[in-house]
Design a protein that fits this description.
The complex is a heterodimer of chains A (about 325) and B (about 240). By secondary structure, chain A is of the alpha/beta class. Chain A is built from eleven helices and 14 strands. Chain A has two domains: about 1-220, P-loop containing nucleotide triphosphate hydrolases (Rossmann fold), CATH 3.40.50; about 225-295, Alpha-Beta Plaits. The longest helix of chain B is centred in the last third of the chain and has 27 residues, at about 210-235. The chains are: A alpha/beta (about 325), B mainly alpha (about 240).
C-alpha cells in the first residue's frame, strides 16, 4: 500500500532522516515509535506531501507522491502534530470546509454526520473551535482526517494532551478505523503501540532501529520482569543473596533513599515468580522488605532489547533508565 | 480554490478584520472626498483618486497581514498543503477573497459620486474619467493585495507582515517622486516606467491607459507567483 524507499531528508548538513525504507501493507495499523526529534513527524510530513524528500521515494498504491501529488493526497487523511483547526469556525463549518477543500463527492450531510458521530463531537458541533478544549480540538483534527473516507489515515501523536478517558476513546477509535483503513500513527508512548498497533517501526536519529510485529515486541519486552524493592539490610549481602535465587537474572543497587533501607532493581525470567522465595529469604535473614513494586519497561530499554535481540548477553549490561512512560 | 476563497471571505466577517477594513476604508474615502472634492469644489477628482492610492498603503495590510502568516502560526497550512488542491489555487483563493472585499467596499464608497451629479453646477463630472480611475484604483488595490499576500507568506508575525507590505507599497509609489532628484535620464525613464504613481496620473487626466492596466495586472501576477514559489521553496528546503 505504502512504499518508502531510501527516504532521506536533510537540512543543510544535518540529516533528519537517513535512508529510511519500509513498506506498509493494506489494513495494517503501524506504530511509529521514537523519542522526540527522531524524525517521526518529518517522515509523516513527507508521506503526506507537506515536505519533499531530499532523496528517496514515497509511493502510495504504486503512485509516487512527487509525480501524482493530488491523487496521492486524496488517498491520505492526515492529522499533524498540532490539529490544523481554524479557531474562528464551528466544528460543522470546519468539516464542511475540509469536505470542499478535498473535493469530495459523497453524500455530504450524511458523511459529515457520520464522522461527527464516530469522533463523538456531537456535543461540540455547533461551537467555535477556538472555544473548545484540547481534547475536542484533537478530535476535530481527527475528524478532519476522516473526511472523504481516505484509505490511509496518518495520525501524528493522536493522544497527546488528552485526559486518560479520552486516550482510551481515541485508541478505541483508531482500532475501529484499523478494520477498514490502513493506519499509521506516531507516538513516544510504548503502551500505546502495544494497545493499538499490529506492527511497530522504531526510529531513532533518523534511522530505523527496529521493524517488528507488536507481538514480538511484547515478547521481547516481557522476556524479563523487573521489580524494584526496598529492603532494610546490608546492601551487598542482600544483593548477593537475591542473586542466588533461581530465576533471577540481575540485581542492581539503586541507592539509599531513606535512612535504613536500600532500593534494588531485580530482573528475573518471565516464567518465574520470585516474590515468595525472595520474601522467605529476606525473612530468614531478618532483613525487612518495606516496599515492592513492578517497574515498567521504558522506551530506551525497548530500543536496547530490540537492537540486542541477537546477542543475549547484551541484556545483562543493560542500564536501568526511567519508569514506564504513559 | 473555491473552498479557500469561501472560507477566507467568510473569516473576514467572523473576525474584526473585515469590519475594521470596511469602516476605515469608508471613513477615509468619505473624508478625502469631502475635503479634496466637495470643499475645494473641484469636480476633476484627480486629487481625490491620487490620495486614495496613498490611503491604500495603510488600508490594504489590514486585509492581507494575516493571510498566510496566521495559517503558518496555527499550523493550518498543513491542512491546505496536504489537501489535493494546487498551491496556485490556494494562493489565488486567498487573493480573490481579499480583492472581493476590497472591491465591494469600494463600490459602496462610490455613493460619493452621486453628490457630484446632484450638486455640480457647471463643472459636470466626467463619467469616463470616474470609471477609468475606478478601474485603475481597483487594479492598484489588487497589486497591493498580491504584495501583502506575498509578504505574509514570508513571516509568521502579522505586524512584520503589515509593515513589510507597507514598505514595499511605499517604495512602488515613491519611485516616481524620486525622479526629480535623479540626474540620469535613463534611470528616470526606468523609474517612471516602474512607478505606480506616474502611471496613475494618466487616468486622472481622463486617459484610459491600457499599458498601465497591463502593468498593474502583471504586478499582481508576479507577486502571487512569488508566493507560490515561497511555498515550493519551503517544501524543498
Amino acid at each position: 500500500m505504502i512504499k518508502i524507499d531510501n527516504l532521506t531528508k536533510r537540512y543543510g548538513e544535518k540529516y533528519v532522516l537517513s535512508s529510511l525504507s519500509f513498506e506498509i501493507n493494506k489494513g495494517e495499523i503501524v506504530g511509529f515509535l521514537g523519542p522526540n526529534g527522531a524524525g517521526k513527524s518529518t517522515t509523516m510530513n513527507i508521506i503526506t506531501g507537506y515536505l519533499s524528500p531530499s532523496d528517496g521515494t514515497v509511493s502510495v498504491d504504486g503512485l509516487d507522491i512527487l509525480d501524482f501529488p493530488d491523487e496521492v493526497k486524496k488517498k491520505i487523511g492526515y492529522l499533524p502534530e498540532q490539529p490544523p483547526v481554524y479557531p474562528d469556525m464551528t466544528v460543522t463549518e470546519y468539516l464542511n470546509f475540509v469536505y470542499e477543500l478535498k473535493g469530495c463527492r459523497l453524500n455530504r450531510q450524511k458523511h459529515i454526520a457520520e464522522i461527527i458521530d464516530v469522533t463523538s463531537l456531537g456535543d461540540a458541533k455547533g461551537r467555535l473551535i477556538g472555544n473548545l478544549s484540547k481534547g475536542y480540538r484533537q478530535r476535530a483534527g481527527i475528524a478532519q482526517a476522516l473526511v472523504g473516507n481516505p484509505p490511509v489515515i496518518i495520525l501524528d501523536e493522536p493522544t497527546v494532551g488528552l485526559d486518560p478517558r479520552q486516550v482510551v476513546e481515541i485508541r478505541n477509535l483508531i482500532r475501529t478505523l484499523g478494520l477498514s483503513h490502513t493506519v499509521i500513527l506516531s507516538t513516544h508512548i510504548l503502551s500505546e503501540v502495544q494497545a493499538v498497533c499490529d506492527r511497530v517501526v522504531i526510529i531513532n536519529k533518523g534511522r530505523i532501529v527496529a521493524d517488528r510485529k507488536t507481538t514480538e515486541l511484547s515478547a521481547a519486552v516481557e522476556g524479563t520482569r523487573r521489580m524494584s524493592a526496598k529492603i532494610c539490610g546490608p546492601s551487598k549481602d542482600v544483593s548477593a543473596a537475591i542473586r542466588a535465587l533461581p530465576g533471577v537474572r540481575n540485581v542492581e543497587t539503586e541507592g539509599k533513599f531513606d535512612m535504613d533501607s536500600t532500593s534494588f532493581v531485580i530482573e528475573s525470567d518471565s516464567g518465574i515468580d520470585i516474590r515468595k522465595p525472595m520474601f522467605n529469604l529476606l525473612a530468614k535473614n531478618g532483613w525487612a522488605l518495606i516496599g515492592l513494586e513492578s517497574a515498567g519497561t521504558s522506551l530506551e530499554d525497548v530500543f536496547l532489547v530490540l537492537t540486542d535481540l541477537k546477542s543475549d548477553d547484551g541484556r545483562g549490561k543493560k542500564k536501568r533508565s526511567g519508569r514506564k512512560e504513559a | 480554490m473555491l473552498a479557500v476563497f469561501k472560507r477566507e471571505f467568510l473569516s473576514y466577517f467572523k473576525t474584526p478584520s473585515g469590519y475594521v477594513f470596511m469602516a476605515m476604508f469608508l471613513a477615509v474615502n468619505g473624508g478625502v472626498f469631502s475635503v479634496l472634492t466637495l470643499q475645494q469644489q473641484d469636480g476633476s477628482l484627480s486629487s481625490y483618486f491620487m490620495s486614495m492610492t496613498f490611503a491604500l498603503v495603510v488600508l490594504i495590510p489590514i486585509l492581507t497581514m494575516k493571510s498566510f502568516s496566521e495559517e503558518r502560526k496555527t499550523k493550518t497550512e498543513q491542512l491546505l498543503l496536504t489537501s489535493p488542491t494546487t498551491l496556485g489555487g490556494i494562493v489565488f483563493g486567498k487573493f480573490l477573497a481579499a480583492f472581493s472585499l476590497f472591491a465591494a467596499t469600494y463600490i459602496v464608497g462610490c455613493i460619493n459620486f452621486t453628490a457630484l451629479y446632484k450638486f455640480a453646477a457647471e463643472d459636470k463630472p466626467n463619467g469616463g474619467q470616474i470609471v477609468g480611475c475606478s478601474v485603475a484604483l481597483l487594479l492598484i488595490g489588487a497589486a497591493f493585495i498580491a504584495i501583502g499576500i506575498f509578504v505574509s507568506a514570508l513571516t509568521e508575525n502579522q505586524l512584520i507582515a503589515s509593515l513589510g507590505t507597507m514598505g514595499i507599497m511605499v517604495l512602488f509609489l515613491a519611485l516616481g517622486m524620486l525622479n526629480q532628484y535623479i540626474p540620469f535620464e535613463w534611470l528616470k525613464t526606468v523609474l517612471s516606467w516602474v512607478s505606480i504613481y506616474s502611471r496613475f496620473s494618466n487616468f486622472t487626466y481622463g486617459v484610459f491607459d491600457f499599458a498601465a492596466v497591463l502593468y498593474y495586472a502583471s504586478i499582481s501576477f508576479v507577486f502571487l507567483f512569488l508566493t507560490v514559489r515561497v511555498y515550493e521553496r519551503r517544501r524543498w528546503a
